[in-house]
Specification:
Elements: E1 2-9, H1 13-21, H2 23-29, E2 33-38, E3 43-52, E4 55-68, E5 73-82, E6 87-100, E7 105-117, H3 126-153, E8 164-165, H4 166-186
Parallel strand pairs: 3-8
Antiparallel strand pairs: 1-7, 2-3, 3-4, 4-5, 5-6, 6-7
Helix pairs in contact: 2-3, 3-4
């Protein structure tokens, strides 16, 4: 499945570029992610925890990061597996930064190709995954903005949740769709 998203960070592109180079910071900003090992500056090991009702899946995996500093773009290729559910995930994400508002705001465009297999693949309908990924992106952007602002002010920040509660995300997505449906009936 393919996912395309854009978001804005209220910081200049060089600051956002540097933040995205800090894989530990990126993992701290992404709910459920944890960096476990930085190998050679471009290969990283980590985990991603997802809670689906009473089941918690912990994907252990590897990511390879390629960055093109001249074009403020990059690619992340990752794969992981959860031994408990025999689920696997593989993704290739491409991203590019664009300055906005005279270079004071950065737009980040993301294109991702994701393949899910195993028991958790039943949640892999692209419309649900797109909505869930939009919510995760919102949480990531909020955490990133908070950390970048805190770095500028020298203050402490609150850590991100240690796992993604997929049930609450799915309930949120279904509620949002229900409200859109009601809106169409009224219109």
């Amino acid at each position: 499945m393919k996912i395309s998203q854009k978001f804005q960070v209220n910081q200049a592109p060089p600051l956002v570029w540097d933040a995205l180079a800090d894989v530990a910071l990126v993992a701290e900003c992404l709910p459920g992610a944890e960096l476990t090992e930085a190998n050679d500056g471009r290969t990283y090991n980590g985990t991603m925890k997802i809670k689906v009702g009473p089941i918690t899946a912990s994907f252990a995996g590897k990511a390879i990061v390629e960055r093109d500093e001249q074009n403020f773009s990059g690619t992340v290729e990752g794969s992981g597996a959860d031994s408990g559910s025999s689920s696997r995930a593989k993704a290739t994400m491409r991203y590019a930064l664009t300055p906005l508002e005279g270079g004071m705001v950065t737009e980040v465009a993301i294109e991702a190709d994701i393949v899910l297999s195993g028991s958790l693949a039943q949640f892999g309908r692209s419309d649900i995954i797109n909505d869930i990924s939009a919510r995760l992106t919102d949480a990531f952007v909020s955490n990133l903005q908070t950390r970048l602002a805190a770095g500028a002010e020298g203050s402490e920040t609150v850590p991100s949740p240690k796992e993604i509660d997929a049930i609450s995300l799915v309930v949120f997505v279904l509620w949002k769709r229900f409200l859109r449906f009601l809106g169409r009936l009224r219109g």
